[in-house]
Amino acid sequence: EVMRDADDTCITICNMENFDPMGVHTGDSIVVAPSQTLSDRDYQMLRSAALKIIRALGIEGGCNIQFALDPKSSQYYVIEVNPRVSRSSALASKATGYPIARVAAKIAVGRTLDELMNSVTGQTSAAFEPALDYCVVKIPRWPFDKFRQADRTLGSQMKATGEVMAIDRSFEAALQKAVRSLETDQRDLLWEDPAWKDPERLLDHVRRPNDLRLWALTAALRRGYTPEELSELSGIDPWFTRKLRRIVCLERRITQEPLSDELLWEAKRAGFADRTLSALSGVPVEEIRHRRWQAGFVPVYKMVDTCAAEFEAATPYFYSTYEDEDEASPLPGPKAAVIGSGPIRIGQGIEFDYCSVKAAQALHEAGVAAIMLNNNPETVSTDFDASDRLYVEPLDDESIYEVLRHEAGSENLAALPPVILQFGGQTAINLAQPLARLGVPILGTSDEVIDVAEDRRRFERFLAELGIPQPPGAGVTTLAEAMEAAERIGYPVLVRPSYVLGGRAMEVVHGPEYLERYLITSGAFANGRPVLIDKYLEGKEVEVDAICDGQEVLIPGVMEHIERAGVHSGDSFAVYPGVHLDPSEVDELVEYTTRIALALGAIGLINIQFVIHCGRIHVLEVNPRASRTVPFLSKVTGVPMVPVSTNVLLGRSLREQGYEGGLWPRQPLVAVK
Q1: Model confidence over 170-192: pLDDT tens digits?
Q2: What are phi and psi of 172, to 5 degrees?
Q3: pTM above 0.85, yes or no
Q4: Domain ATP-grasp, which positions (predicted)?
């Protein structure tokens, strides 16, 4: 990543290296910064070439240049030049802390690098090249958990929908943190495909670029293959396969030796999560956590300062590592943590980042310091100036709890800053129960209320007690129960698991053979929670977003879906206001929404989806969080939904903010999503 101004001053911002060899799109490759396998001679050669190219092209601003290098001969080719801010620019900006787009914009209006101040250090100019004293790993987030039958081979056409970034002092630790950040079935490097018991199937995954190749490499190392053999098969540099071997060797030691303090410290420094250590050693997670705390093995937080601590810096941008010196003094209170939404994937996109950033701004305006936790380099929430403090961490209970303990500045649980979960999509909602068990205060809708809404069996009982219609259905936990329930209800049925996002593993099924095949292949029972089998009702689908303060419910608007029920709301066109809704239907929708929100005990945002079948309104589902339609509805109704709900979480009622319960006056426009 290179920058040039009108005075012909050129600097390199960041050099990054793809884990995968040539042939895999850089957006589909694991990326490491700074590059790890280049000799100083090779690095200087490529740096000089990059500066020559940007000068020869006369580019003023940022420029991304990609090279292919033969590791044996130092021969190289220029693959492409992007004379603009690119996906790699966003990663380079977050990896270094250098605000590439901001500086490029100022160069575009005639400023020069030596005139611009580095906003991170506040005392060096933008002409200083960033220096990294840490390792950054980016792993793409692919959609194959949604499309299980899709071709998983990676090539020159990008298939990833998003990415995660992790920072630590070593490659091993950053890699393991990035894997934990992905939020897939592969929760750590221990995961193996059962099909890999066949050595040929395993080696096929090593040879062929695919989304599971990282796990195939560690599986092969466990079976005795050498780093050099795997490097020969995959084309991946031996430096990386040797680092993977170090992780596998540590796994073996944790499995075979007693978990001594020395081994525990070494494992934590290499990025092993408590959950992974528990799986390897057989020691319960709680016991590992308490042993760590007793031994004083807690993470310290280091600053991303662009200058490797050469100059004083005051950036509020931190990552965790297991070392001695801490650089993040706890913020003075009052403060609250906003849990972000992690990588962009199908069903959970930038809408939730909009909510997280607006929430952080509302907290700041209310005099509450906003602490942001997220790991997605593509988002605004991971800009260090979007909140009072940013931690780039995996969004799991261990990482979040350690940040909160650090911010509390003591062992006193009462001093833990509260967390806000409802703006981070399903990622944050799924953390409600694990965090509540650890004693973390949750602002807004409680973990118990979230479980009633998310657990299909409990929700079914809740609506029955309120006397609000819902499609006939049953919560099931086994294949046999599912087959029996579907037969009793009658096909077609809608299959809906608990605690999923973007309709993952949901399906309209028209017969028993399809239901059996679908439940076996989709992983619907994977999280151990009930799956709801309910009657598929054809009709108009309607969606409502609302804000509840415990006393009143404000409904900014009612949206009608153009597609029939059964098409996921995220895939459906929606119209505000609903054009085929009678006033009596709107009144009934408002009444049901108000009753559900108050009876549930929701505080803050809530989203409800209805279907109108044969003139009767049925509730399909309730999401006790911000939905993907919040930005849309906020902009077309003029109700700033996220700031209003954030103030509700802080204890200000709707009336104190100038709003009343009920339906917000309809706007004189039609809006289509």
Answers
A1: 999 999 999 999 998 888 999 99
A2: -60, -45
A3: yes
A4: 44-109, 460-650
